[in-house]
Amino acid sequence: MQNAAKMDRAAVKNPVRSPTPEQCRDCSARHIGMCDVLSDADLSVLAHVAQRISLAAGKIFIEEGDPARYFYDINQGDVRVYKSLADGRRQITGFMGVGHFLGLAAGGKYAFTAEAINDVHLCRFERGAIKEVFDEFPALQRRLLDVATHELVIAQEQMLLLGRKSALERVAGFLLSWAENYAQGKSEPVTIPLPMSRMDLADYLGLTIETVSRSLSQLKRDKLIFFADAHAVTLLKKHRLQLIDAGEA
Amino acid sequence: MQNAAKMDRAAVKNPVRSPTPEQCRDCSARHIGMCDVLSDADLSVLAHVAQRISLAAGKIFIEEGDPARYFYDINQGDVRVYKSLADGRRQITGFMGVGHFLGLAAGGKYAFTAEAINDVHLCRFERGAIKEVFDEFPALQRRLLDVATHELVIAQEQMLLLGRKSALERVAGFLLSWAENYAQGKSEPVTIPLPMSRMDLADYLGLTIETVSRSLSQLKRDKLIFFADAHAVTLLKKHRLQLIDAGEA
DNA sequence: CGGGACTTTGAGCTTTCTCAACGATGGTGG
DNA sequence: CCACCATCGTTGAGAAAGCTCAAAGTCCCG
Question: DSSP assignment of A168-181, as one string?
């Protein structure tokens, strides 16, 4: 009892700790993201260079321009990744959930800022330490390339959205792609959480909060979506959303 | 003589040929792109699985949705990479010049179309064949990750441009980034070619040709740039272009 | 239960788009 | 070699999508 209390206090003062095998086994990101390519046995090698970190909502843990010391793997919660202009304009380049890998950088510096949307748990890997693990398990390095390639495909899709789609098309497109994180391919009434604010949505879709709100209201009026509350949306007519997204409606 | 003539004829009928060591040595992409990480000796291994290809302006050589059989390395000319919507709207996600590497794909399918802007020469690598070379030279695999990471950084910058910048800021930003391909960091009167059409520019910047033209005209009126002709621009006041690009003017 | 933050809705405005005409340029055939 | 035509680029005027400013409504959290 007393020991446990002591450890808890220690954990609060210094929450940087490697995950135990049990924590890895039970981790919600165990079979997505980086860890999925390793067996339980091999995972302990990776776990050894990992540090578990907890972040409160709003905490910035990667800052644009800072030296890129760490990679991150999200175990819990959601993260917004963005770039800013001097006058405060902001473009969110992605929302990252459980299992997402984060921290690729060119030229040794992060090119983006990353901020916790809600309470976040993640595993942090120092670049130097993880390099040796990569050499030991080439599958990890290959997975890294897969992740980067996948991000690139998504980024290209987002450029199409930002450059060429109407407000309604952007909102429909976002709902569909966000839903994929929760219910791959599942059809009809799919209910998904929207942990981010309307402001986040606006900064992701290249719109204003008002236009996002109006577009969501229109989809609601047309009975394509339904809101239990502002942060939980149900997709009622996925097919018609897809038509709108593709510019065919 | 007769043999040479015969080979030339064969080359015309079947222009798919591995490059000779001399061709590699003299290639304008020798010290950029993939090949740069290999010594002349090692390069012959890569050259062995390469096929030199020539494309006329306008030729599409990667089509969105097709099985991703090849990687490409551009030796000469410029390429536009884009995605399209059903109704013909198009978003160019990048212009690729000499030394650029092309062909990363997730899920075995290309997510974009690639088309020659002018006459293009490139080296083509079959995925199966190159995989063995990658195993032999891990530096190549690492370079691939560097390329993907760099592309990702550029894509994020482009999302900021498309989502949050004004027309004038987009055009200024494009001129600066395009100039980097020709004169890294060089200052003041830098003259650069614009091989792409105004339509290409519009589809890259998420604008219309008219708005691109008006923005260029404004920069010209303000004496920040100068046109020898429509496809050769001189940057006169790089610093002021940078201010515009950053949203500080 | 109250207050601050977030979201929705409305009205007028700005930027960019659309439609149209004019101008330049480059390739071709007489 | 020049004239012609097709294509591309520039400029102008009016229209529209989305933005700004404003106010009312809603939801948490203390």
Answer: HHHHHHHHHHHHHT
- The answer to whether A79 and B240 are in contact (CB under 8 A) is no
**Do residue A105 and residue B146 have CB atoms under 8 angstroms apart?**
no
pLDDT digits (tens, 9 = 90+) for B162-217: 999 999 999 999 999 999 998 777 777 899 999 999 999 999 999 999 999 999 99
pTM recorded for the entire structure? 0.93
CB pairs under 8 A between A and B: 124
Domain A2-160 of CATH type 2.60.120.10: yes
Domain regions of chain A by residue span: 2-160, 165-245
Closest approach of A10 to chain B, Cα-based (Å): 37
Which residues does chain A have within 8 Å of residue B141's beta carbon, measured at their own beta carbons?
Answer: 141-142, 145
With b for 16 or more beta-carbon neighbours within 10 A and e for fewer, the A188-227 pattern comes to: eebebebbbebebbbbbbbbeeebbbebbeebeeeebbee
The CATH class of A165-245 is mainly alpha
Instruction: Mark the nucleotides of strand C covered by protein, meaning any atom under 7 Å from a CB.
Output: 6-11, 15-20, 25-26
Sole residue written with tokens 């080359």: B11
Instruction: Fill in the amino acid letter for B51.
Output: Q
